[in-house]
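Board work, copied verbatim: Peptidase_C39 like family protein
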Amino acid sequence: MGAQDPRGLQVEPEAVREIARALRRGAREWETLAQRAQGHGNALGEIARAVPGEQFRAFWARQYPRWQRGVEYLTRMAEALERAMDRMEEAFRMAARMVQEAPTAERGALPFVPLALSPEGYPRAVDATGRPLQSQFEARVSTTQLLQLGVSEASLRSLLGLREGQPLPESIPWSAACGPVGLSMAASAVLGRSVPVEAAIASTLRTADASLQQSIRENIQARPGKGSLGFYTGIHDLIRAAGELGLKGEPAWVPNGEQDSEGLWRSLQERLGRGEALMALVRIQEKRGLQVGDGLLTSHQASDSVSHWVAVQGLEERPDGRYVVIGNPYFNRSERYRWEDFLAAVDGQARKERWWVLAFSKGEGHSGGRLP
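↓ predict structure ↓
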């Protein structure tokens, strides 16, 4: 299988190598044709020593270097593709050696196989119309709800870069909405129907305690001109929101993954088997631009990483090892990681003597929860 990056670019190494081989064949054929043409030109010049023959020989003497440059160009292209494939394979071999030889060393984005369209039935987060979000950055918060939490109009105008008199929009982007987006996935899995991201966000703000309300106000005041909200949600923020959606949520203590990975695997497997939805706090590499690995799980020791909520959607045992399928709010898709790579990515806040995940089940007496 070829390598694939978050933007959908897929690389098939053997196909690239075949292109390189075709370029080399083309270069050889091009050179052979050029040599034949040069030979014919020289022969014509010898046979017809008159002006036409000499003119053709002179003409070809000027053209031949251009043909040679074409041969060299095709050869360089082939070499560049071959070097790229060799370096990519060496990079993967080096990454594998790092994982085996230095399990506690800082690592970059860990290998994964994306299931960008969630073909195996894993729920994606959707908006109120049922459309899957492209990423968590599409999430928005009601301006009215923010004002009800005591956020001033002046601070919202400063956040959005609006002048006095300009109307406030109905909603404001929330760039750090991984918690409610992940909760939307979890709630959809437990309730058996799509729970829109808007519902999860509205529940989060309606049930916000004094600490979260203060965090929201301070975050807005600290982001003049940023144009989006950047506050984060914690364990109890999500549990309170889940209760309003019709879920019973709790921090579930599980075996320490470093000391008893087998016990942790069985514990997660049992909970998923009972129909619970799980969320885990992990570390992701949040670099933008050309870097492959945006929003992907990374080592909990990596310095260029941030905390991030994901939904644990499935555990798989395959001939080549164990895998965890997560619902990653960052690009709102399912991603498959090796078990050991998932363990390495669990956030330090969850790596206590015993580890924890958030577990959600259908709450008693609820008929589906309150939706806005």
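The longest strand covers residues 305-318.
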